[in-house]
Each structure stands twice: as C-alpha cells, then as structure tokens.
C-alpha cells in the first residue's frame, strides 16, 4: 500500500488498493499505550495510512513480538505501522521516508510520541533502497516492507535486507504487495501468516 512518496505515487492506483487505505487527513493509533491518539498525515499525493482493520490483523500476529523490540518501517509515509509498534511496546522504531514534507511531519510525531512512551522513534529521510545498502550495527526484530506498487521495490528490498544482515534468526518481516505477486524471499524465511484484502496481499515471514 503506497505510504511512501516515490514519484510514481502520483499515478493512479487500482481501486482495490485505494480501498485498503483510509483517506488522507489523520490516522488513529488503535492499540497500546497511545491508543486513540490521532496524528496528522502529510498532504502528499497517494500517501495514505494502513487501515485500522489491516493494522489490527498485523499486530495481532505480532502481539508477543513487540515488547522491547527494534523495528524498521521502510517507505514509512504516514508512520502508521511504526507508531503502532511504538505504542505496543517497541523499544525503538526507525522510519525511512523519502518525501521531505512527510519526513518532517513524521519527525514531529516521533518527538512527541517518544516522550509519551518508554521507546524511541527515529526518522531517516531518504530512499529506502539506498538506506538498505549499508549494514546496520545490529539487526532488527521486525521490519515493515510496504512500498508503492508496480515498481518491483518489494523484491529489491527483501534482497538487500537479507544480503546486508538487517535481520537475524528470530526476526519478523512484514511484506505488502499486489495480490498477484509472490515475494521472493530467502529459503530461511518461513511464511507465518498470509491474508488478502481485495487485490492486496499482506504476509508475515519468520526468519530462521
């Protein structure tokens, strides 16, 4: 679901894709310490938060994995996934967003929300693929991969995540793509959960 701000985000999206997102304006954190908190969304074409329903499903899958975790939200856009993880006990969440306006607003939210919980939210402005070219000091427990559609970005991200040690045994990787696409993942990544919403597929992999 297109939460990042790549140039192609201004092109029309399939209706089913649009229906899997809320309208622009604000998002609501649905669980954890920050439950009910509303956050403004940057006025960027095509940028919409993951719906409450999809987030509820995803975070039910991850309910025992977030406490004191380190999470990475690629193509962060509205920050819906990272801030939900922070609310539910993540120790640190890192949001990567290319669009300047969206990244600036995310940084404002990150500062306020970090003061309200025990965790920390960090915002990195830049291209997700370029960000993944480096190797992290330590791996992440949970990574959210939710790129714009039609650009082949998911597979490129997954390759770099595995290649550059962004995850380790026990990590979780959430991937959202068009329904017709089957992400290419390493043999050591096991499909833990899979669900469809219209023409959108969302999957959670466990790294062995």
Automatic annotation (TrEMBL):
Its EC number is 2.1.1.171. InterPro entries: DNA_methylase_N6_adenine_CS, RNA_MeTrfase_RsmD, SAM-dependent_MTases_sf. Residues 1-23 are annotated as: Disordered. This is Ribosomal RNA small subunit methyltransferase D. Keywords: Methyltransferase, rRNA processing, S-adenosyl-L-methionine, Transferase. It catalyses: guanosine(966) in 16S rRNA + S-adenosyl-L-methionine = N(2)-methylguanosine(966) in 16S rRNA + S-adenosyl-L-homocysteine + H(+). Specifically methylates the guanine in position 966 of 16S rRNA in the assembled 30S particle. GO terms for molecular function: 16S rRNA (guanine(966)-N(2))-methyltransferase activity; nucleic acid binding. Belongs to the methyltransferase superfamily. RsmD family. The lineage of its organism: Bacteria, Pseudomonadati, Pseudomonadota, Gammaproteobacteria, Alteromonadales. The keyword DNA-binding does not apply. It comes from Pseudidiomarina maritima. SUPFAM superfamilies: S-adenosyl-L-methionine-dependent methyltransferases. Pfam families: Cons_hypoth95. Residues 1-11 have a biased composition (Polar residues). The keyword Oxidoreductase does not apply.
């Amino acid at each position: 679901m297109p939460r990042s701000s790549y140039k192609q985000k201004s092109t029309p999206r399939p209706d089913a894709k649009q229906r899997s997102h809320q309208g622009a304006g604000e998002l609501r954190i649905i669980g954890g310490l920050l439950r009910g908190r509303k956050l403004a969304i940057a006025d960027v074409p095509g940028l919409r938060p993951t719906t409450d329903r999809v987030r509820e499903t995803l975070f039910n899958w991850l309910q025992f994995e977030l406490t004191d975790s380190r999470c990475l939200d690629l193509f962060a856009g509205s920050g819906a996934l990272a801030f939900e993880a922070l609310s539910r006990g993540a120790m640190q969440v890192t949001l990567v967003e290319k669009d300047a306006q969206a990244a600036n607003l995310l940084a404002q939210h990150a500062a306020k929300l970090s003061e309200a919980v025990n965790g920390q939210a960090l915002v990195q402005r830049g291209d997700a693929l370029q960000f993944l070219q480096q190797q992290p000091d330590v791996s992440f427990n949970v990574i959210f991969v939710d790129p714009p559609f039609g650009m082949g970005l998911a597979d490129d991200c997954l390759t770099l995540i595995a290649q550059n040690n962004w995850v380790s045994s026990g990590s979780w990787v959430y991937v959202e793509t068009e329904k017709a696409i089957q992400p290419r993942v390493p043999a050591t990544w096991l499909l833990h959960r899979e669900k469809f919403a219209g023409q959108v597929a969302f999957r959670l992999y466990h790294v062995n």
